[in-house]
Amino acid sequence: MKRFLIITADDFGFSTERNQGVLEAFNNGAVKSASLLLNCTGTNEAANIFKTTDLCPGLHLNLTEGTPIGIENYKTLIAPTNGIFKGKFELRKQLDSDLINPLEIRQEIDCQIKLFKELIGRDPVYVDGHQHIHLHPNVAEIFADALNRHNIKVTRLPIEINMASKDWVNPEYMPFFIKMIENVNKTKVILDQYGVKSTDSFTGLSTMGRDMTADRLKKIILEAFEDAEKRMAARELYQQQDFTTCELMSHPGHPTDPEYGGFSWGSDDFGCSDDRIHEINVLSSAEMMEFYKANNIQLVSHKILDN
């Protein structure tokens, strides 16, 4: 059984510094796909990198941070005081209370896919969600319908198994991760109904920044593949597919200037942190490359799913 691992660099386009780091990880052979933010200071530069390299182009759909790509007179999707998205937690809170107009979500998704095509010259190979907003219960069907209408077949299903047992994760983050995974498990059926595919397994929630070490990566990657293989065996799918796929989410880069970068007003602590360099170093290490060879794992891009 072949094992195909897709290592995705999130937040491509966030800044020039982030772009440089993603390109470095790509040139090291550690990253094959990158998810582009469209409303950041490094967006245009990142688009040009896609056009001049074999880095697989994906859209990082953003409904939570910065200014929207679509019309400026959204009534519910943005904060009325400053015209920017409401944030990771506030948007989810208002979605839970049915306070966000679904037509505005549809409009913004369509506008972002259209702009991506204008910048890159083609549709994204895949679309995932910034801060995983694409699979909130009140977004998932709108999102899946949009991908279906634009003939985009691939997304991310951010379900990391045994998440609660990973005691190295900051306990402040864990409730968000657990709740999100519960929601995604519920909304997965929607993706299936619209014919939107994802990898057989996913990991990387637990290894962002300094939480990423070679030992932890090896543990969670093997865990993800073995779980996928067991599920395939239980459903007797080996005759249909002779390989399994896993996506590893990552955030490589260089620290962004705190005064300029990101969503134009400067970078947050996550973007400024040298944790971004740490991820490049771990992902590019000889230890990880040897691990892949020893465990029959081949690094590929999302293109393997786009058929």
UniProtKB/TrEMBL annotation:
It comes from the Eukaryota. Pfam families: YdjC (PF04794). The keyword Magnesium applies. Its cofactor is Mg(2+). Gene3D superfamilies: Glycoside hydrolase/deacetylase. Probably catalyzes the deacetylation of acetylated carbohydrates an important step in the degradation of oligosaccharides. Belongs to the YdjC deacetylase family. This is Carbohydrate deacetylase.
